[in-house]
Amino acid sequence: MTIQQLTAQIHKKKSFLCIGLDVDLNKIPKHLLKEEDPIFAFNKAIIDATHHLCVAYKPNTAFYEAYGIKGWQALEKTINYLNDNHPEIYTIADAKRGDIGNTSTMYAKAFFEDLGFDSVTVAPYMGKDSVEPFLAFKDKHTILLALTSNEGAFDFQTRSVDGVELYKQVLETSKSWTNSENLMYVVGATKAEFLADIRKIIPDSFLLVPGVGAQGGNLQEVCKYGMNSSVGLLINSSRGIIYASQDEDFAEAAAQKAKELQLQMADEL
Fold it and tell me: Exactly one of 14, 96, 109, 259 is catalytic; which is it?
């Protein structure tokens, strides 16, 4: 999917909502555990109830890897369902990969070619030759971890080297990589006050912003400092939407939470 297609969907739906499909079998409604594939049954119900309210879905692969081959099969079913029924929706494999070049190429093939995701999250610590293999794929995007929403982000990301915070050096350096136009960046919603400085470095790039909802990030603050002329934001909410209810009405409850966020987003556009 191209950036132009993603932006068109944002304006059509008046939404820049990304829903995280982080499926924990201990948290889904108990009646789904009787299904042959409880993970996919849960995801399908959430997708069917919310696809008109969001522009992206983001499965965190850890929640599938934890269940072995059955988890991977559920992930494959989920991405196939999305690509077959809602090809206009942007898909993100939240895998946080990053390794030496030839290994990164294999990771990229796995998520872009085999599974058919539009994008994948990647850690920048090993530098350009670990990231450029992902960037080589046409109309696919690499979402680089820049400034994350967890407490430990302050251990390294905001530390200054020669007077410049590390996350700013990551942003600046990444712009020189081959096919850097295929980059997006993760910036946590709980770090909204940093967004103004981030936009000075990467004014035109899309930002994936987790942390709105259960983690306490503020949508209006993120929009105030992070939105650009083409919107340039994907705001992710996971637990706050998909676990809105553990009863049989869980999909309807998820849709209600998604609708609340979508209406707030419409006001920002």
Answer: 96
